[in-house]
Amino acid sequence: MAPFCPAVSHPSHRTQPGLVLSLGQGDVGQLGLGEGVMERKKPALVQLPELIVQAEAGGMHTVCLSETGKIYTFGCNDEGALGRDTSAEGSETTPGLVELQEKVVQVSAGDSHTAALTDDGRVFVWGSFRDNNGVIGLLEPMKTSSVPVLLQLSSPVVKIVSGNDHLVMLTMDGDLFTCGCGEQGQLGRVPELFANRGGRKGLQRLLVPQRVPVRGRGNKGKMRFQDAFCGAYFTFAVTQEGHIYGFGLSNYHQLGTQGTEPCFSPQNLTSFKNSTKSWLGFSGGQHHTVCVDSEGEPQWCLVLHCTEGLGSRLPEVPLLRYPQVLPPSPSPEHLLPLCPGLSRYRSVLPPTKAPWAC
Hints:
repeat; disordered C terminus; Ran_GTPase-activating; Reg_chr_condens; mainly beta; guanyl-nucleotide exchange factor activity; RCC1-like_dom; 35% strand
């Protein structure tokens, strides 16, 4: 278990409280609006007992972190992704409290798993990971968990982020730890030969968090990271020197690589070198990536997939093989970032930085 840490911090920890609005499909309660709401075409207020600092949309569930460090969940709980009892009729369709005594500073959500980072650097998870053949388990092969369980890590964690079925953890020491499905290379530490359920070593190779090995140049030793981001089946990491590494699925150039083969180990993404060293964030779905730097002209970005019936259609964007600045789009003045579910959504970025995409 990670040694006690008085308080962890990272720029990704959100502290500004606000209200939660939801829209889209609600057939399994993922909108948090109650049993009778199957769809909302316009944003609707989710009734929560506290103000919220972070909201994350998983595949079919939603996770909200309150300003006091409590977690509220709603949506599909078939594999325990809500982390709470939903035996009462309809209880999964409205926000419910996850019983966790520790104060939480960050949450993440995948297709059927949820993770929470506490203020002393520990990570709790619940639900399950899946691969192309179905459930693979959470901490142990084929075993899911409907309540939070502690991950055993050797160093305090400062950031967590989830893909569809993998979890990435950035430690205080600058290491990356990953666990979950590795079929597309998204763990960055499992060779392609063993990516299908861990090969001879079995699922333990995938489910037990292990460090992603990246060597520095020359005799500098291992690489240290300052940030990490996930798409559905791929991962980005930013070194302390500002270099971008990526691994995982790239069949539509999601990683910004020249080829479309998956990357099973971290690749130094040289396509980012000609832009800036100061990357503020990456956000990706199944087949695309949007990233924000700190050196461009202020502009908006409303891009990529938008589900029919949920507002105006957005212009199609041609396939981009390398990071490129996206043209600005007309938009309201005071929108905040949205958390998308699955692969069909629109991304909204604050009007203070320049968005790129690949």
